Amino acid sequence: MTQRFSFALHATDGKARTGLISTPRGDIRTPAFMPVGTAATVKAMLPESVRATGADILLGNTYHLMLRPGADRVERLGGLHRFMNWERPILTDSGGFQVMSLAELRKLTEEGVTFRSHVDGSKHMLSPETSMEIQRKLGSDIVMCFDECPALPADEAMVERSMRLSMRWAQRSRDAFGDRPGHALFGIQQGGVTEHLRGESAEALKAIGFDGYAIGGLAVGEGQEAMFGVLDYAPDMLPEDKPRYLMGVGKPDDIVGAVKRGVDMMDCVLPSRSGRTGQAWTRRGQVNIKNARHADDPRPLEEGCSCPACTGYSRAYLHHVYRTGEIIASMLLTWHNLHYYQVLMDEMRTAIAAGDFAGFEARFHAERAKGDIVPL
Predict the structure, then answer these.
(1) Which residues contact 52 (CB under 8 A, 6 or more apart)?
(2) Is 267 one of the catalytic residues?
(3) Within 13 Å of residue 144, how many CA atoms lie on the same side as its CB?
(4) Residues 82 and 187 in one domain
(5) FRET label pair with 102: which of 18, 275, 349, 356, CA 20 to 30 Å apart?
(6) What is the pLDDT, as a whole number, of residue 38?
């Protein structure tokens, strides 16, 4: 790959931004929502179905893929894109968050993290260097530097120590990544909910130099109000001419609030996980298809939605197949949720380009305030 990763900012409206990330595997329209394909699959979806929802990029998980099927195996089989039949861009996270949240018997040192797999108890070590090597073998287009992400709330002194360790790891990640034309490395800002720590982190990352910058350490228990409080200043600390990625977010109102504050990229398991648990996201809020009120309802899940769940099936059918444990329930509800998220992103891009983000936001909240359609 000789084409370089690049980002062009096309329009702004307040702090909200729309633009285009260019990669050798295709363009990514921003603001962008990345469906999560943790173990090389977006659960209950074919890759071509995910693309049909409007997704430009997927996220894969370094921690899970290094454990199963293993980075060496993926590399031998032609890389992650070929392995999972997705030829468009892929971002891989570094594995740091999962090590902290899922792995057993962790030991954190300056060198990295030694841990036992939650799958079979086998012992592994992740460092900035090994994370870069694993992500290289996977062949992802956007690589995340290795960091530590403490859960919130946390003592400020602990957050400070963690942030500074992550900045040292960021430099090592940059050194280990090297120069890989066509591939990008993103740094990750840390600092919890403390403004001066966020500022220190941003300055350290800018001094190192990255292709994009993530806002990490949020959506880890602090609540929406605290998250928005950080987003009121954190994106402004990062370079204006590089993509800004808010990791692990979120609900539709989280996403709208993040874009309003200058975020360009997001990811979350919520739309697919909700689909598997009978939850659907619509313009008028969340629908629990498990509820008995849907059992005789011939109406679609969402009027005007063009996804297969809404154009071909009734609420009564979706209720039935979910309650009877049929796999098609997860497929249809996940497809709807991913479709809704991508429509939301497209509407925001259009509104920003037209200078009407405030109007879009008002309509978004007004529609959600109506609540789900009344039972028949």
Answers:
(1) none
(2) yes
(3) 26
(4) yes
(5) 275
(6) 93
